[in-house]
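Worked example 2:
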Amino acid sequence: MTTSQAIARARAISRRLVEGTSSSVDDFLAERGAWQE
């Protein structure tokens, strides 16, 4: 594996993690907002 391949793979993994956490945060806020209403 070359350095550029390793960097591309790390970026893909980090992007997936960021998208996963942001979506779970959105779900959490939506549930919390529904609970407060």
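The chain has a mean pLDDT of 82. The chain is about 90% helix and 0% strand.
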